Amino acid sequence: MATSQKASPRDRLLDAAARLSYREGVSIGIEALCRAAGVSKRSMYQLFDSKEAMLAASLERGIPWYEARFTHPAAQAASPRERILYVFEQLERASEDTGYHGCPYLAVLVELKNPEHPASKVARAVKERLAAAFRDEAARGGARDPELLARQLLLVFDGASARAGAGVERLADGLATATATALLDAAGVGPTGTA
Amino acid sequence: MATSQKASPRDRLLDAAARLSYREGVSIGIEALCRAAGVSKRSMYQLFDSKEAMLAASLERGIPWYEARFTHPAAQAASPRERILYVFEQLERASEDTGYHGCPYLAVLVELKNPEHPASKVARAVKERLAAAFRDEAARGGARDPELLARQLLLVFDGASARAGAGVERLADGLATATATALLDAAGVGPTGTA
């Protein structure tokens, strides 16, 4: 995301926090963040209580964009199975981007190792919302155990994102979609489920 | 792992690097590592070229223990399917440990975001060896596409480890095993595959 020179110091800091923590990890220093944003440390501490709060706010701000990416463009016409598989197709597409390092919310959880960190709480909420969406679709699609299927799909989603992000797997051949398809079939969510 | 007071400075450093980077992340400072090991920075740099090299060596040293954990105790008598599922049962057991933060090799890959880092190379080799083991077992068990099944199983393995390690999932009810079972079934690796 290119930031306009006219962006506010707050927006510049949130952009820098999102961009640099994704690329370098959450241990990125405050000095580097402020330098990238062109904002003094003093101004930063006037805007945010802490680096933790700034990181959490930067993750929070990215949620609408992140979630829109996984929403089927013809959601009304699509079946639950199609809407679920679309999430994995989009993950596969995203993983081909230059500079892809996996799902930013999973990465933050893995890196912080602290569920009480404000950024972990934001990330956890994003993951819970995706699980709830999978569960709802699984129920609509007639899954025998919608809760189990949703949890299985999250294992695949996060495993695929972590592995592709770390450069130990490539998803371009449809690996994530194929795996999700096998789990949908096993759970009884067929191609002709009710929409 | 408790370290004997008689352990060499090298072993104390490797223990500290493994323990602290697992608990706090790879960004843990050299000062903290040397303090925990009771070794001066000067001695550390006589033993290792860099913190990177020390981290890689600490991961390398843990491989035999890590891999033994996933080897079926009655490997000769077990079927390929049983040997594969044993890996997931052991993952589920490990995830219940206090202080579990997921697979240390996956965590390092996610945190470093740099495939050229010496520690990333060690982690990648561990992941490739597990993929090869899954592929061999899948072939022995009659999988239609052993390579595909192995890659799918790795998505589940790493997804389960990352999610449980981050505290957003619990595996104690057999989630990982159930997911692997569905994929084995879909790939045609039945309970009565040849051993």
SS field, number of helical segments of chain A = 10
**For the report, how would you describe the main beta sheet of chain A?**
none
Using CB atoms under 8 Å apart, which protein chain pair has the greatest interface?
Answer: A-B, 44 and 44 residues
Quaternary structure of the protein:
homodimer
Order of helices and strands of chain A: HHHHHHHHHH
Indicate how many domains the architecture of chain A comprises.
2
- What's the β-strand tally of chain A? 0
CATH top level of the largest domain in chain A is Mainly Alpha
Examine the secondary-structure arrangement and name the CATH architecture of the largest domain in chain A.
Orthogonal Bundle
Shape summary of chain A: elongated
Gyration radius from CA atoms of chain A, angstroms:
18 Å
Approximately how much beta-strand content do the residues of chain A carry? under 5%
Look up the CATH topology of the largest domain in chain A. Answer: Tetracycline Repressor, domain 2
End-to-end separation of chain A: 35 Å
**Poorly predicted runs of chain A:** none
- Which percent range fits the helix content of chain A? 55-70%
Q: CATH homologous superfamily of the largest domain in chain A?
A: Tetracycline Repressor, domain 2
Describe the structure.
- 2 copies of one chain form a homodimer.
- Chain A has helices spanning 9-24, 30-37, 41-47, 51-61, 63-69, 80-95, 104-112, 118-140, 146-165, 175-187.
- Chain A has 195 residues and is mainly α.
- The first copy, chain A, has 2 domains: 9-60, Arc Repressor Mutant, subunit A (Orthogonal Bundle); 63-187, Tetracycline Repressor, domain 2 (Orthogonal Bundle), CATH 1.10.357.
- In chain A, helix 6 runs antiparallel to helix 10 (175-187).
- The first copy, chain A, starts with 8 loop residues before the first helix and ends in an 8-residue tail after the last helix.
- The model of chain A has no long low-confidence stretch (mean pLDDT 95).
- The interface between A and B is large, with 44 and 44 residues.
